[in-house]
Specification:
124 residues; mainly alpha; flat
């Protein structure tokens, strides 16, 4: 797959998922839904953030880090976007359950940082 096709496919998919997320926001009543409604909400939000962060992260890497191979930039952007999207969705979930604190945020960031370092070291 060429870079142009990848970016086009990723952009179309991300736009579709953002549309799905807006549809979910308009159709699901948070006071009357069950766990499935919340799962669909958080999953669509996660995928939308991950897609957007992947595209933005790759474009930043492509413009700033021209010495890196394109495949490595795509792979790194994809991995880090999923961690970032998980962080955002986890924070929103903690806020909705009234469990958010700076301690929980610090633990979450530490856990995701360790996961990123493990993935980097496993690669080498």
């Amino acid at each position: 797959m060429t870079l142009k096709n990848y970016l086009m496919l990723m952009g179309i998919t991300t736009a579709f998922i953002w549309g799905l997320f807006i549809f979910v926001i308009n159709m699901i009543n948070p006071t009357a839904t069950n766990w499935l409604g919340f799962l669909i909400f958080y999953l669509s939000l996660f995928l939308a953030f991950a897609g957007t962060a992947t595209i933005v992260g790759f474009l930043i890497r492509f413009k700033l880090l021209k010495h890196d191979l394109i495949f490595n930039s795509v792979k790194t952007a994809f991995r880090q976007s999923f961690l970032f999207a998980f962080l955002v969705v986890a924070i929103l979930y903690l806020i909705s359950e009234k469990l958010f604190s700076w301690t929980n945020l610090a633990l979450l960031v530490i856990i995701l940082s360790v996961a990123e370092f493990l993935m980097i070291s496993y690669k080498k």
